[in-house]
Amino acid sequence: MSSMRMKAAKCPSDELAITNCALINPDDFPSDVKHIEVATGPSQHFLFSIKFFNGVERGTVGFSAPQRKWAILSIGQVIDVKPFNPRSAECLCSITLEADFMLKKTTSLDPYDSDQMARDFLIQFSNQVFTAGQQLAFSFQDKKVLSLVVKNLEGKIALLLGLFKDRQISF
Hints:
Protein name: Vesicle-fusing ATPase
Pfam family, one: CDC48_2
Strand order of the largest sheet: 1-5-2-4-3-6
Structural class: mainly beta
GO molecular function, one term: metal ion binding
Subcellular location: Cytoplasm
Enzyme class: hydrolase
């Protein structure tokens, strides 16, 4: 499928914003599309996992504030969007994240259980695509929403050379 000209829009709710998914009207792409590539310029490409949502106008993509900040998107900006299909042999093995409070005015001294945070992250964001530098909101238990930035990714690619051989790579 070739790219479509669409417009960036604001995510319609805080609840949807913390999914880390761009929102697409179900009539814009086939239901089997799980990820998109967004081009904002000749050499500026960003990957997003998507959710279909009827509350987004056709021809627009709903982005959360962290997504718009990361991809340098303005509301109403024209973007090129096409489905992105990760190779089925790629898998993320390790991700390094930097965490800070989303709203600096509402910080907390409450302790955060980093082991539980890692488990919750895996549950909340399974089957999503990530890119170094990506920014996202993370809701953890009843604590203040955190701003996460992807610092490093490590994965494996299974290469077909007569036999499968795993090779460690860094993204």
